[in-house]
Amino acid sequence: MAIREEAGRFVMQGVCDVEDVEPLLQALLSGNDIVLDLGPCRHLHCALVQIIARSAANLLPPEDEWLRRFVFAPLESSRAGKPAGALPSTQHAR
Q1: pLDDT recorded at residue 88
Q2: For residue 54, what is the enclosing H or E element?
């Protein structure tokens, strides 16, 4: 299991795969003011990203640059109700 409780927060570490959906849901349902530490996480299954996006947990960012840039930043933006930033246009000039 890639989720553990530590010092009043839930830490997601290493490869967090679909098997971690149930433990994450249990953690998020355990009470108010949940802190979810993504620091040591290296991979997040898309099901976990969706659950985190809908949660009210306070998030600590991942150390992994790719996760921080392409998952955490848009996730935080969407949770704040802000656009996550435009992707490059795929339309071709005519």
Answers
A1: 42
A2: helix 46-54
Spell out the residues 6+ positions from residue 5 whose beta carbon is closer than 8 angstroms to its own: 11, 27
Nearest alpha-carbon partner for 10 in 45, 46, 60: 60
Given the structure tokens 């990203």, which residue do they identify? Answer: 49
DSSP 3-state of 88: coil
The position carrying tokens 């849901």 is 25
pLDDT digits (tens, 9 = 90+) for 49-72: 999 998 889 999 999 999 999 999
What single-letter amino acid sits at 82? K
d(CA 8, CA 6): 6
Backbone angles phi, psi at 45, to 5 degrees: -65, 145
67: tokens are 């996760």
CA dihedral angle for residue 24, residue 27, residue 30, residue 31, rounded to 10 degrees: -100
